[in-house]
Amino acid sequence: MDSIIKKICAGDVRSASRLIRDIEDKIPEARAKIKRLYSHTGKSFIIGITGAPGAGKSTLTDALITELRKSNKTIGVLAVDPTSPFTGGAILGDRIRMQSHAEDRGVFVRSLATRGALGGLSQAAGDAIHIMEAMGKDIVIVETVGIGQQEIDIINHAHSVLVILVPGMGDEVQTMKAGLMEIADIFVINKANRAGAKQLQMELTSMLNLSSKSAEGWKPPVVMVGDAFKPETFTENIVKLSKKIEEHHIYLQQSGKLTERMHRKAMAEINDTLHACLLEPVIKSLAAGGELEKFAEKIKNRKADPYSVAEEIAQRFFKKENEK
Amino acid sequence: MYFSREMQEASLKLSRKWEDNVQKSLKNNPDQKARFTTVSDKEIRRLYTPEDIKDINFAEEIGVPGEFPYLRGNQVTGYRGRYWTFRMFSGMGSAQDTNNRWQMLLREGQTGLSTAFDFPTLMGYDSDSPKALGEVGKCGVAIDTLEDFLALMEGIPMDEVTTSMTINPPATVLLAMYCAAADIKGVPLSKIGGTIQNDMLKEFIAQKTFMCPPEPSVKLISDTVEFCTKSVPRWNTISVSGYHIREAGSTAIQELAFTLRDGIEYVEDVIRRKGLNVDEFAPRLSFFFNSHIDFFEEICKMRAARRMWAKIMRDRFHAKDPRSLWLRFHTQTAGCSLTAQQPYNNVIRTTVEALAAVLGGTQSLHTNSLDEVLCLPSEHAVEIALRTQQILAEETGVANTIDPLGGSYFIEALTNEIEEAAWDYIHKIDDLGGMIAAIEKGFPQMEISEAAYRFQQQLDAGEKTMVGVNKYATNSTHPLPLVDIDEKVSEEQIKRLKDVRRKRDNKAVKKSLDDIRGACKKGDNVMPCCIDAVKNLATLQEICDVYREVYGEYKDPGLY
Amino acid sequence: MPERKIRVMVAKPGLDGHDRGARVLARCFRDAGFEVVYTGCHQTPEQIAAAAIQEDVDLVGLSCLSGAHRILFPRVVELLREKDADDITVIGGGIIPEQDFTMLYDSGIKAIFTPGSSLDSIVEWIKKNINPTSAEFL
User: Fold this and answer.
1) What's the pLDDT score for residue C66?
2) What stretches of chain A show up as alpha helix (H) in DSSP?
3) Interchain CB contact of A96 with B (< 8 Å)
4) Beta strands B194-196; B235-236: pairing state
5) Helices (H), B275-408
6) b/e for B37-55, b at 16 or more Cβ within 10 A?
7) H/E run at residue C41
8) Which among B235, B254, B512, C110 is placed 20 to 30 Å from B434, CA to CA?
9) Nearest CA to CA, how far is B195 from chain A (Å)?
């Protein structure tokens, strides 16, 4: 076995973080490492945390880490922040709220920038999860960007999805309409000491009662979490949240839903890798030769239609592969 | 204002003529830049005329010193009866080292003391905490126990000299030490006077010296206000500070607005939590502003501040006592305007800034030393800074008349504009649910970060000038002798602390800490137990750890 | 070889909370196209070194205005070295008198930027001296 694979499986943070970096930078050799790593993955419980900016995702993650560490579980955290479309740069600021765990060897926090991905995660997130799993983390928490309302990539990666809402942000119902309603396994009403929390809870519960999901056997609970500045009640709420997550885990295992989710995840992985391994190189090579521009030009001037162009490209690239 | 119709018409006519002349002149002599702005990036017009102040109601908006709206000053007689207090912020190394510097300053004509504490003290850690590594005695004096504090006050007549203490999260502890020290020296609490900064909101907003979350932090502040109102009547309970907000990169308007809004938050809390009448405690609130390099902007900011606070106290809190309406303030010249390059230029900057503070009507002033951007100030540098104030007061004649710039078209117009923009911010924060809510949302923090970044970009682009930095830079250096705090200070301080821990009655310490814990949990005033605890030689950190335990620890939310 | 993205960390060791410079730099680095991890105020050298490794940054920029740099900056370098991560470049800034430069350089700090340094000069230095493509695959 590769020395880096060995090191990662032994939990070495530096090697793991390095490999994540190479995946982010799309270093070809990195894929080979993942291939060899893959048999060591699939054992962690993966929690997704999503919700609008300012909902308090990082603070909740921080508190969950503290709670989960009490039972000695090892934890990996992937915190995703947006890349600026203008400069390509990013400020990765989630970690700041988790810095008190920096020295805890049982906790590994890694920030990722979206680098153009739109689904709330980064392209590298899937492999970064694999790497953390190979390190032997009991739990991997993935915190999404929380900017858009299309952040549903997380269901392809996580076993339990937490959707964080805050009273008074005005967009709760919108959020629900936009699809976050369907992806939630657990709802958290954060900053629940604020005005409007009770009402939000009622609205949410009544919507959940109408939803088809409850018929499946798991009715997403609504957990109220108060002000993080009031240590006593906050800790109590977090203990409750952590129990709900555990209950959901047990439910998934007992109902067979866990295998269903693993299957869904595998399908998504095929989809993602096909895109990365087949489509991306094609697009890149066409772009490098200036052909991509020419095709676009043709389509624009109605000299060709997109389907014919796609067929022509497929002919050229994939035929060749077959002939070889 | 008070212009006759004929005069207004004449003025308008002349202004138009002048505008025509400007247009003609610009053809041959274009302006040096497209925009003329203050250091805060506020655009300034080429000329101000009677047109700009014609709508001002003189009696209501300007008035005379000592009368509402106090635009021109709180004191009826201005600086003639008494200059502003020359108050140099100082502290370094051990209590003994700082006491030596204080004795020198008092000898040289300083009229009030002002204490700089080191970072472990400011953050509520003892000198032997791992968090204190490398910091002990560096930026100020290290205080762990009452013994250190007594050494600091050695030979200082506590019934004559007032002492300002720049202390925030552990303000209750330092105030307790001050009271305990007075008690030991036989000075009654009714005779001592001074200030604790005790302004936590600006810490969350700007300076980031925090310990507990905002809500309990404000509770502790209200405890000190209540305690002093009843027992230490000459004490200034909160120094609501804009200085640090400005140093963090805010504009003058943001400094003004956030500071006054912080003041509102404190007044509301004391009334709600302690049930005091506004006039019982409001006269002991004071303020602290920055005097930055943009001369007129600063003067107008200070004038606007006085008028705004008077309106806030009258209209929002229905205060009756005129002293409640007074905005009394200390000023410090802007540390962030100083440059490490060609440091002697800093004397000139500080002089201009100090002059602005005086023309703005400050009650108390600290002038920065020329070497403060490099290290703690040397004795010589402090002396020059103190002399700067003395020259302004006693040679230049600027203190002869009250508010000498009042009535200037420009000054009155700019004062109004600044005030209006500051109200907008205050209303915005009201809409957000008050300052604590705004802080939780990161509103003031983000506004400041944005302004700081914009300024730095303008500096880099050459749109703003710092002499010796982005213009007129030279390689020639005239090195300054720098003050250096030896690591030995830390070793000796830790040894003193350990000695105290050994010799004190640990049972008594434990009991008094339990009392503080009980008071915190019940929501009682912590001050009486705090005084007992420091007398029993409980350390600063031991008391602060109780606060952290009961109230929780605040973490930097990292908004930028 | 695909283009490597520069990753940097801005950190404030010690107890001083004067984070104006750190915040301005974080924004400036983002606008220069870097990925920037900011640790917030009041960090111990141990927290900073651990975070730098977890985040696999190329560079750590330390900011200190309290005078504690002589102890805290070298400590960060030392901790990185102990963890086999001395390929992570450490630079510093803040109120740092020139007389301390030699001592800091000797301890492994690669560059010092004091007040008055332009943002461009810092970005330029990083672009010139940090080359993640050379990062040897473990």
Assistant:
1) 86
2) 3-9, 13-24, 28-37, 57-69, 125-134, 172-175, 181-183, 197-210, 231-255, 257-274, 280-288, 291-300, 306-314, 320-323
3) yes
4) parallel
5) 278-281, 295-311, 322-325, 345-359, 379-394
6) ebbbbbebeeebbbebbee
7) none
8) B235
9) 28
Subunits adjacent to chain C (3 or more Cβ pairs under 8 Å): A, B
Assign A146 a pLDDT band (cuts: 50, 70, 90).
Answer: confident
In degrees, rounded to 5, the angle at the alpha carbon of residue B537 between the alpha carbons of residues B535 and B542 is 120
**pLDDT tens-place string over residues B111-156:** 889 999 999 999 999 999 999 998 999 889 999 999 999 999 999 9
Q: Which region among A213-217, A258-262, B101-105 has the lowest average model confidence (pLDDT)?
A: A213-217
Residue B37 phi, psi dihedral angles, 5° rounding: -130, 160
Per-residue pLDDT of C51-87, as tens digits, reads 999 999 999 999 999 888 999 999 999 999 999 999 9
Give the containing element (helix H, strand E) for B104: helix B95-107
Q: Is residue C54 a part of any domain in this protein?
A: yes
**Sheet architecture: strand order including A107-113:** A107-113, A75-81, A139-143, A45-51, A160-165, A186-189, A222-224
pLDDT score recorded for residue B220: 97
Q: Are B352 and B367 in contact (CB under 8 A)?
A: no
Within a domain: C116: yes
Judge: B559–A93 Cβ closer than 8 Å, yes or no.
yes
Three-state secondary-structure class, residue A44? coil
User: Could you give the ipTM of this predicted complex?
Assistant: 0.93
- As given in the structure block, the two tokens for residue A87 are 């400069």
For the domain that residue C97 is a member of, what is the CATH number? Answer: 3.40.50.280
> B246, B229, B222, B223: which is closest to B297 by C-alpha?
B246
Inter-residue contact B300 to B259 (CB < 8 Å): no
Q: How far apart are CA B100 and CA A302, in angstroms?
A: 87
Residue B220, phi-psi category: left (phi > 0), alpha (psi -120 to 50), beta (remainder): alpha
- Residue C134 — pLDDT band, cuts 50, 70, 90? very low
Widest CA span of chain C, in angstroms? 43
Contacts of A54 in chain B (CB under 8 A): 441-442
Is C19 contained in some domain?
Answer: yes
Give domain status of residue C2, yes or no. Answer: no
CA distance B67 to B278: 19
Instruction: Supply the range of the domain harboring residue C82.
Output: 7-133
Amino acid residing at B510: K
The answer to whether A87 contacts C31, with C-beta atoms less than 8 Å apart, is yes
Angle between helices B443-460 and C20-31 (to 10 degrees): 70
Which tokens go with B342? 């060609």
Q: Using alpha carbons only, how large is chain A's radius of gyration in Å?
A: 22
Q: Mean per-residue pLDDT for A201-215?
A: 76
C2 and A27 within 8 Å at the Cβ level: the answer is: yes
**Which residues in chain C are closer than 8 Å to B485, comparing Cβ atoms?**
67
Domains of chain A in sequence order: 3-255 (3.40.50.300), 270-323 (no CATH)
3-class SS string, B112-139: EEEECECHHHHHCCCCCCHHHCCCCCCC
Q: Amino acid identity, residue A19?
A: L
Four-residue CA torsion sign, A91, A94, A100, A105: negative
- Label the pairing between strands A222-224 and B163-165: unpaired
Would you call A92 and C55 a contact, using CB atoms and an 8 Å cutoff? yes
